[in-house]
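User: Can you predict the 3D structure for this chain?
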Amino acid sequence: MTPVKRTIYLILGFFFLLLALIGILIPVLPTTPLLLLSGAMFLRSSKKLYHWLTTHPVYGRYVDAYLRYKAVNPRSKITAMVLLWLSLGVSFYLVGYWWVRVLLVLVGMGVSYHVLRLPTLTPEMLAELEAERQTNRTYEESGVTEIP
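Assistant: Here is the predicted structure, written as structure tokens:
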């Protein structure tokens, strides 16, 4: 890979990471997909940053699990659904236009369908991830060598 491409991926990785961090505070921005994009960009540009992201104590578990198994934690699914419908419910209550309310329900149904269709991490997968986190594995040992 050329240094220019590597630099572009690095900049995009930081850009998506910044958007993901903003998304934690603003419910409109989807945090998890932005973290995954950041991980994909770091995987292509910097082994060190990819390792930092996938071993981060707060959100590293989610990124690592999705990149390795293309699955999410059952608790994450439940949390996503509860927060989604709570925020949509508040918006539904505050908005006075009927067409916006219809749009909110349609968006909620679409996002719910997507979240519920994501594969769920099995207890075996969770145990394997936790065991690897305990041994503080390196990038080379992670098993992820390309974008899924």
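The mean pLDDT is 83. The first helix runs from residue 3 to 25.
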